[in-house]
Amino acid sequence: MRTFLFSLFIGIALFSPLGASAIFIGETANFSIDEERDLLLRDTIAATLVKIGPEAYYYMETTVWNALSQVQQSDVVLAVDVLDREFHSVMYPTLTDFFGSEWNPGIDNDSRITVLLHRMKGENGGYVNVGDEYEKVQYPNSNQREMVYLNTERLGTPIIKSFLAHEFVHLITFNQKERLKGVTEDVWLNELRAEYAPTLLGYDTPYQDSNLKRRVQNLAASPHDSLTEWQNTPGDYGVANLFGQYIADQYGARILADSLRAGSVGIASLQDAMLRNGFKESFSQLFTNWVFALFLNDCKYGERYCYHNPSLKNFRLVSQTNFLPSVGESTLTLNNTTKDWAGNWIRVVGGKEVMTVEFQSAAAVPFTVPYFLERNDGSFVAKTVEVNAQNRGSITIQNFNTENRAIVFMPLAQGSVSPRQGVYPVYPYSLVISATGQTLEQKEAVVAQLLSRIDFLQKEIAKVQAQLEAMRSPKNSVSCSLLTQDLFLGMSNNPEVSCLQQFLASQDKNIYPEGLVTGNFFTYTQAAVVRFQEKYAQEILAPIGLTQGTGYVGSLTRQKMNRMF
I need a surface site. Which of 197, 205, 208, 349 has the fewest CB within 10 A? Predict the structure, then answer.
């Protein structure tokens, strides 16, 4: 039966919409891949077409395919067939109805997407390269298809459905944001929507071995990870997933879909979607309530302080616990750091009848400091430390031991609301928790300690500022003469990219306002190149029939820059 199915399968062929040739089962094609994710660090592989579905072509890495026996190949075809039936009957109609369509017929003028199975490192389930959505003249490694890449090792496992759904949402996001709205989505929100796709499709039930369980474990391992800073770590995915679950539980999954259709991105798009659906909470309040929910997860303490998803009802983060002596007078000073939109939970037990808490931070971003009083009967009361413009605030709690057994502080830096690239700055803060009855000398000693700490932190901030200024200075870079090679998005640690950035920084400040000289060709540099190309459009764009800049430094752009060096 297996042999028969396979021999029948290889007889299927379609005519290419581009008119170049027939597309048939068993044909091979070469593809560019992500060498950082590839098991063997390759950037190009050959792959064999093993399935043509209603909405997708399925290719498998040829070296893997050819190493299989005919029986094993039949098993692969059956596994792909199961996956395609799910994609056709459930994933594609549900996700496109909810989020909107991918680019269809797309850059290749083919209504089908391409799914490429190849060997990947470790825990990689799959990925999407948006460069595939551009012509090779703009992105040399483009496959010029709507493509999803999946790990061959995951084929035949239940979680492969979650990976395919996740990556397909990235294709939808590219079309809905970049093509239709002309904006690039913040990475964290792009991943958040993709992470919610398995839940939307019902793939996180049963919970065991689900993507949701995996992300809960990721969050528990990195609970202080910033929501909006993206370094592609498991913690990043855990935080994004659980925040998306919270939004869907509390406000409805439609918020996620509406934020995708908004012309704004990131925090602004979520805020727009909230208002459109009748919710007046700010993003700051939304995030704060979520931090409450991660610790409490019980609706009886507040309707926003919980998850409704049955798989998450018993999930609670464990806080860091600090102890004060329950007899005598004592002071506990806690120095810590955080980043924008990162959760913190600091539990304090012990102390005497009256407890005084002082919060302060030398950071130039606003903090909010909510806290819980944990009553002796096990209940919680939510409150907030009032923090002034200088990031200072204090509270006094009466009858601490007689009525309360613990206090949980959650200092939150809520500064940046616009897209930010790279590693986020670290913000220091301190909590000084004191029992009653301190002498004047003791209080003065605490003040002196804090002033010394502030002086130290100010010096550290000055060092960081000096380092940032050095990054903006051409003196920190290589000696430059002429540009000799094409430069494009994604290049890193490249001396010519540094020269390019120095050149752009030397132009009108409107060309490259960031002025960073890093050697890494990311979106700031790409945007600067676009502005330069459009400023000199007659010399750079018009000769090749373009009206808008591409961000790709090709021969005409180099020639113009070299003449201006």
Answer: 208
